Fold these 2 entries.
Entry 1:
Amino acid sequence: MIILWKWWRRFREQKPQLDKAAEQKKEQRECRRRIRVARAAFSVVSNVREQPARTTLVGCFRGKRAFYADVEESNKNARYHPDLDVLHRHLCDYPALGCLRVRWAEHVIRIIVTHRAVSGRIVDLQEADSSIVRLYVASLTAGVIEDGCAPLADLASSDLANNLVEYRLPKLTLLETIYERMQSFYEHLLGGQAVLSPGTAPGSVRFQALAQFEDAIELRSEDLTALRLKPELVAIGIDRITRELVTVDFSRCFHQLLAGASRSGKTTIVNLILWQLLLKPKTFCAILGTLKESAFQSSKTIRGSPLPGPLRMSLASFAVSCPLR
Amino acid sequence: MKERIDFMVQYEIEAHPGPRIILGIDEFAAITQWRVTKGSPQERMKVQLLADLHLLSQQAAATGIILISSVQRASAGEMDGDYRANLEDTWLFRVRNKSTSGAILGPTEELPADPTRQLARGECIYSHPGEPDRVVRVFLCDAAKDDLAKLEAARIAWAERPEIDDEDDVVVPLRAAE
């Protein structure tokens, strides 16, 4: 009797948690059921309808759902395809895309994007409740052009309608972890700091940071005056936010640590400092120890050139000094 | 360094008046991870080299010798903690994961940009003691071999230039890093 009473008491204590878990399972089942219903509806629509004339097959949804793009009448109506409206409504009905729905929604969006890109048709999904849908569509409608590159901020959605572009999403699946990794990609796009252009491979797109298109940066005269008057100052770069010149004052003698992954720009800074030191031979000597001789080929060729005393002595030891070789 | 210290002691000065010496070590991990046979002369050389570098990081700043070390991950296996602590200015470029950036500049949340995601190539976070961290877009130094003759001619011309009283402001175009 006591055992039964204890068991009953434990059951009473755990009952709220069990009820909560049951409710969650019920919600998940309901979610899966809605997805199944939606898939079935789409597949029925696609199976019933045959491919109309003057269209071309552009996509297939899980081997069941086929999309046909109307080539000739593509630009007449932004919502010409009725099935896309169904998809649109269905996506807009989603309050939020959870983990289970994300992959499916990503497939749907990929189909829409492929279809729209090939047919040059725009489907307005900006009204969707899902942030992921809005993020996808906002980036896709922001700035893909057929030829060349253009800043995203200068492009409108109508630019897409007049061009045929091939676009493939960067990831085939959109798990939450992958979404986190891709967030900077979208932040660059939405912030106008990057451009998209058609890639070399069919169906691919090229992502380029906007910094590559900044040909020249005009420095302020007061910065140049400071650099000229104080030879210990070495210009390194420009502040990304304030656009001010960033210099290092070597008269204060701070040791420098450069850290970062491969091909992130560490050697560039070393080269930059060395090349600026070449213009200030009375102030600096430079000794370089490295195993990467290829990165400093330009400095190596100065060896033996008639440069002033201390600099010539130091340059003679360029790309040596390291006893490992 | 000893010569400089003796000179400073002799003249009772705190800063060496001679030119600064920049010692740049690219890929510092190549030294620490140098595989040597135990008891070989190479091992003694490695130990001596690391000890000298450690001594330089401690005392060379006062004598006008500046160290510039680059490393991919400032972990204990690639760079000694004491040596790392003596390098005050830090340029953190894009890294693979947050643990790497955390070992260099602390928690990612306190940085002006996430070094794992929000830094493009050539962009870095500059940390200077006593100042807030800044995101810096580094200039691209693309001096080619063909430019060396021009540089040499410019240097000679600069050395032989006539004296000008009023200096005009000059705008120098510099290409930004990729």
Entry 2:
Amino acid sequence: MELTLLPPISIVPPSIIPIAEMAVVAGLFACFVLTPPVRRAILAPTKSDDTNPGVWPMGRVGMFAAYIPITLIIGGSVFDMLRDTEHWPWSNFPMYSQIEEKGTTFEDYRLYGVLKSNPTAEFSLSTDSRYTQPFDPSRLAEALSLLADDPRLHEGLQDRLRRYEILRQSGAHNGPAISGLRLYRVGFVLKADAANSENPEEKILIDEVSSPISGGTR
Amino acid sequence: MKSIGEAWNGFWFKPVSAENLGLARILIYGSMSIFYLVTPTLFPSWGWHAHFSEWGDVDKVFWHPLWIFQLLHLPLLSPQIIQFIADLLLVSMILSAIGLFTRPANIASFLLGFYLFGLPNNFGKVHHLETPLLWFFLIMSFSRCGDAFSINALLARRKRAAPAPILSGNYRWPIQLFCCVLAAIYFEAGVSKLRHSGIQWVTSDLMAFYLVRAQYHITDAEPLTNWGLFIARYPILCHFSCAFALLLELAYPLALFNRRARMIIPCGGILMQTGIAVLMGPNFWQLIICQLLWFPLDKVYHYLAKPGVSGEAKRLDAVRA
């Protein structure tokens, strides 16, 4: 007889789950802290026998005020480290931790501007982060990869095209005027001198938009 | 031998003067006020340090709210309102730095910073540049950081005839906790590397890959130089820098318990962060400034201010004696 697994039923909103998990851990921690010997040890600094008038023993309120951020910050950090998860502003800080399996190649999502003066020519907007502000190149690539299969991608590209022109006209950057924007998935083969940093070996067009004056295309 | 309870309480609450905490408050709030005021103008190519208000103008198709923004129902506000919040944050950081309305200013800095620093992370990728700052703002909100080197303290001293108590555990735990935050950041990064890649993180040619790829406009900021291409040609240099980084990250908690390590390890951290900015791009300037809190700022201050002349130093010496 085959056993069919039913999909899990979610009755709790996903955003609540980390809070619930943290609450359980915090509850267990609170039980530990409230045991009499631990409680006595924790409150010891409030009963200083130092008679020096210049030394100020910790008050109970002060102790409580100290333990709130201590528990919150360290508890969340330990939780994320043990679970290998990230719940901003806590994090497991995973950047640069993965071995790259592809060796000397990598893929990325990049925007290219179509020159207004020469519609057959295009240039990469990744070469200057001022072209895509407030996005930096790494965040923009990630945001575009999340949108790549989304029907709203076209809308997102229109937004980026409009934004590029607003920044250009306000003097925030001195890039050339563009009449359209193209999103490519690009593939690079790393070279020791990075000479091909603006000429990927592979370029697959994902979507394309034009400014309203030039007429929209897809 | 000390009991665990005594060691724990000594770590967090051993009485110290308010000066180190007051100087830490001035250093972080003051330098960050200047940082967020001038970088959009002086260094506009540091995209993520541009005006926060620009996020309000980004189309909602890019909006992927963080769990905590979802939970608290924090919306994407208009550019005008975000700019207003950013202005308020700047004012509250300046007030915190000078120590006027210190506690309310600390709380406002945390609440406003929480929204502003979190905002860009709702657009596809989480960066950790401002995380230590946010924790600093939270810690200061619960601390008595306005008791020294502040306008509040000056005003209080004029009203009071008797001198205020000047050694307390209230002044130690905030700095200790913030150092724990810094140690945890590096230690967790080290653990992540071991967990995801193991010792291969050091023995493979991963660093060469990262150094060369950084030249392909892939990071949040361009590397300050192209020297990474040179280093990538020498595997021994790559393995050495990987080993240095991993050992440093895993050793960071030692700085919490050993005085000598507290002097050496943060210098290594500053060196590593500077190296990352120079060779790979991401520049954690805020984190570099925060590393200064590992050092006894009050001792530096008294060394520079000639303690023999300072009345405050004489009072401190009397109490310590």
